[in-house]
Amino acid sequence: MTAREGIVYGAGALRAAAHGDRMMWALHRAALTYGIVPVVTVGAVADAYRTEARGDRLDALLAGAEVEPLGREGAQRVGELASRAGTSDLVAVSTAETAARRNAAVVNARQAALRSATTLLGHDLVLYGV
């Protein structure tokens, strides 16, 4: 397995942080300590704010992360990949696409859609479930 060059947080990771999950916060602090800036897709951010009441915790986590925008080309890649993967979970697919493109590990809860998308991309998924 190839060494990963970064870490991508999915919506599940953001939910865990919003709920004060100690392992999620420990992982986040460790990443920052080692100079790893976690990446979060704009879709995961939107989904987390849609479902979580603890916006202050999300704000704290995102202050140390890079939020990756999704332009037209990115939206096309994600849409086509979701179609090939047979899923409507665009947030999970965008997380998988970002991880594959950046050669990064993923912290998330949704495993089925991630695995399906990363398999199609030829990316060995390194997933830390929260």
Instruction: Give the total of beta strands.
Output: 5
What helical percentage do the residues reach?
55-70%
By CATH, the architecture is named: 3-Layer(aba) Sandwich
- State the end-to-end CA separation: 22 Å
Name the beta content range.
5-15%
Describe this structure in words.
The protein has one domain (6-129): 5'-nuclease (Rossmann fold). The longest helix has 14 residues, at 72-85. Helix 6 (90-102) packs across helix 7 (112-121). The mean pLDDT is 87. Strand 4, helix 7 and strand 5 (127-129) form a beta-alpha-beta unit. 58% of the residues lie in helices and 14% in strands. It has helices at residues 11-18, 22-33, 42-51, 55-63, 72-85, 90-102, 112-121; strands spanning 6-9, 39-41, 66-68, 104-108, 127-129. Strands 3-2-1-4-5 form a five-stranded parallel sheet. The protein is α/β, with parallel strands linked by helices and 130 residues long.
Short description:
By secondary structure, this protein is an alpha/beta fold. The chain has helices at residues 11-18, 22-33, 42-51, 55-63, 72-85, 90-102, 112-121; strands at residues 6-9, 39-41, 66-68, 104-108, 127-129.
Give a topology summary.
Layout: E1 6-9, H1 11-18, H2 22-33, E2 39-41, H3 42-51, H4 55-63, E3 66-68, H5 72-85, H6 90-102, E4 104-108, H7 112-121, E5 127-129
Parallel strand pairs: 1-2, 1-4, 2-3, 4-5
